[in-house]
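Q: Sequence in, structure out?
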Amino acid sequence: MEKEILYTKKQVQRKNIIAFSVFIFLMMAAIAAWIHVKNLPLDNGLLGGVQPPIRKVLNLNEKIFSRSLDSTHLAKTYPLSFAVKKARVNGDIGMGEDFDPATWKLYVIKANGDTLTLSLEDIKKLPKTEIVFDFKCIEGWSQVTHWGGVKFSDFAAAYHLNNEVSMKYVGMATPDVEYYVGIDMPSALHPQTLICYEMNGKPLPMNQGYPLRMIITVKYGIKSIKRIGTMYFDNERPPDYWFERGYDYFSGL
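A: Exactly. Output:
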């Protein structure tokens, strides 16, 4: 049987003082570290971004999530009856009111520098795919929504973009270039990624990206760019609006 240890009042007080002092020291060290990181220059300078130590953590998250991405890993889908009738809008950057739908074209810049110019009808004539899934926004909300369009992989095959999709990234921008994203090619070619022209069986509402937007089930909504105007391909990361403002580039789920 272990012998019971008795402490005097003075010994207890001394231990309490030591414990409290250690707590204060660690708290002050944490505050000092936070102030130091907060005052570091941002990694994207005038574009915004985050401090380099935070970016290192985000890059580590990206490596982990990107390695877990697999074409056989599908987002959960739902019956059509689960879809909301009026979907929330996840941002309006690039959705300027001066947009003229009658003049819209999708410009696909190929690897050799040629530009493929497509109308909405050119895209709608391809095999249609529909999906009902839980759309997730970085603002903290999600909704089960119903979308229709063309698989990005089918689009690439139909327009002979074999050389282009062998690259690491696809970049996209709105017609006014106010919003732009870079998407890793495995996510773009995922079997549930759509170039989308319908919501709830009808043409996209103007505030949901009419006439054409992306729907990427394996990423947060910030990557599902609305009102695509230009598409291009690169082996280097294309510019990305929210990456420049402190988010991780992959933005995967």
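The two ends are 54 Å apart (CA to CA).
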